[in-house]
Amino acid sequence: MSETDQLTADFVRVCALTELPAGEAALAEINGVRVAMVLDDEGVVHAVNDTCSHANVSLSEGEVDGCTIECWLHGSRFDLRTGKPTGPPATVPIAVYPVRVQDGDVFVSVPTS
């Protein structure tokens, strides 16, 4: 099995890196899971569960500031690297998914169960 075959066996191609706007969130659906994709100011791609753990609200509609994303409804912020909330009202972390960039494409691994 080639390196590319191994990469795509566990990871799903989401988009080209050039399709992600820097400093903004984009929505993707991977294995039936809504995922907020963020290309931060340092060129690192992050993938987190799109649903705020405090309220059933799409995080991809919120503001990105550095390595955090804000829920637009109540202002909870989550660290894009760890998924942990950085302040109230959210107290439960969101899922963070592994990301790989290869040959200009973004791949994300999201569990199917």
Automatic annotation (TrEMBL):
* A Pfam family: Rieske
List the GO molecular function terms: 2 iron, 2 sulfur cluster binding; metal ion binding; monooxygenase activity; oxidoreductase activity, acting on paired donors, with incorporation or reduction of molecular oxygen
Q: Protein name, please?
A: Non-heme iron oxygenase ferredoxin subunit
**Keyword flag Protein biosynthesis:** no
UniProt KW Hydrolase keyword: no
User: Rieske domain: which residues?
Assistant: 12-108
* Alphabetical list of SUPFAM superfamilies matching this protein: ISP domain
Q: What keywords are assigned to this protein?
A: 2Fe-2S, Iron, Iron-sulfur, Metal-binding
Q: Which organism is it from?
A: Flexivirga caeni
